[in-house]
Automatic annotation (TrEMBL):
Example of a GO biological process term: uridine catabolic process
Recorded GO CC terms: cytosol
Protein known as: Nucleoside phosphorylase domain-containing protein
PANTHER family according to UniProt: URIDINE PHOSPHORYLASE
Domain of life where this protein originates: Eukaryota
InterPro entries linked to this entry: Nucleoside_phosphorylase_d, Nucleoside_phosphorylase_sf
Residue ranges of domain Nucleoside phosphorylase in the record: 27-248
């Protein structure tokens, strides 16, 4: 590793995602579950060159073609940190503009039913305020006990790419029916349990009324999950390209596997069917995005898929 600030090996592979230039495309479908990535890879063109790499850090990359267009499917696991690893390290080894769409799962906190697909126009983050639990750090602490309202921090909204989002809604509507495609604000939590308002009697989480506070802050909040905010936030923070183009265009489609108000969940069989439908819809959008092909072409001598 030559650079402690941005570690890469002698061949140019990034430290965590394990990719070098030519092994990953500008059009990326990202998921959490590696098995989901493998199922969606079955939608890629048969007979086209295929590149696969799985790292010991939990990242799986499958690069191929969809309707002749180069596409990468990347499984990242769970959490905003994993999205951060993926976006930064892929951006470092890809030339030209990128379009990244996440297919994930979420919990509905509004009227979306299990099996509906949420395509958010914006996302916010909810993060545990660690200092609010300082009074629990040792017996006999004299620290003041905070109110539940002070125990979690709610961020500003960050929008996805409007054009990509509109295309996703249209494409998904044609696959599952427009009535099952839901718009609104997504909220990304830093944990699955406490920051999403789940009650765990084994821990002090001070999250009574948490979902209600989220909905008060964001009246259009429809879903809770763990990665989407990092995608929208980093797409906004990516430095513009030398041409002045946006560096990363981002969108998301999330299948509601839980209905939090009704305490209902989606079966694994139904989820698998929806994953394939959603995957086809998202790949259609990716294949038709980034029409400036000149900015996407890699040198054939260094590209696995060229």
């Amino acid at each position: 590793m030559k650079n402690a600030n941005f570690p890469m090996d002698a061949e140019g592979h990034t430290y965590h995602v394990g990719l070098k230039r030519g092994e990953v495309c500008n059009r990326i479908l990202t998921v959490g579950d590696p098995e989901r990535a493998k199922r969606l890879a079955e939608l890629l063109d048969e007979g086209a060159p295929r590149f696969v790499r799985e790292t010991n850090r939990g990242f799986l990359t499958i690069t191929g073609r969809y309707h002749g267009v180069p596409v990468s499917i990347i499984a990242i696991g769970m959490g905003m940190a994993m999205m951060d690893f993926m976006l930064r390290e892929v951006r470092a080894v890809v030339d030209g503009p990128m379009c990244v769409v996440r297919i994930g799962t979420c919990g509905s906190i509004a009227d979306a039913e299990v099996g509906d697909i949420i395509v958010p126009e914006a996302s916010a983050a909810v993060v545990r305020n660690f200092d609010a639990f300082a009074d629990l750090s040792h017996a006999g602490s004299t620290a003041a006990v905070p109110s539940d309202e002070d125990c979690y921090t709610l961020s500003s909204l960050f929008e996805g790419d409007a054009e990509v989002t509109a295309a996703l809604r249209k494409s998904l509507g044609s696959r599952v029916g427009a009535e099952h495609v839901v718009s609104g604000v997504n909220v990304t939590a830093d944990t699955f349990y406490a920051a999403q308002g789940r009650v765990d009697p084994c821990f002090v989480d001070r999250n009574t009324g948490h979902i209600e506070r989220i909905q008060q802050r964001y009246p259009n909040a429809v879903s809770l999950e763990m990665e989407n905010f990092a995608l929208f936030h980093l797409a906004r923070c990516a430095a513009p390209l030398p041409t002045g183009q946006s560096s990363i265009r981002a969108g998301a489609a999330m299948i509601a596997v839980f209905q939090r108000k009704k305490n209902e969940s989606l079966s694994k069989a139904d989820l698998a069917v929806l994953e394939t439908k959603a995957g086809s819809a998202v790949l259609d959008v990716l294949a038709s995005s980034l029409t400036d092909e000149e900015a996407l072409l890699h040198d054939a001598s260094t590209s696995v898929w060229a």
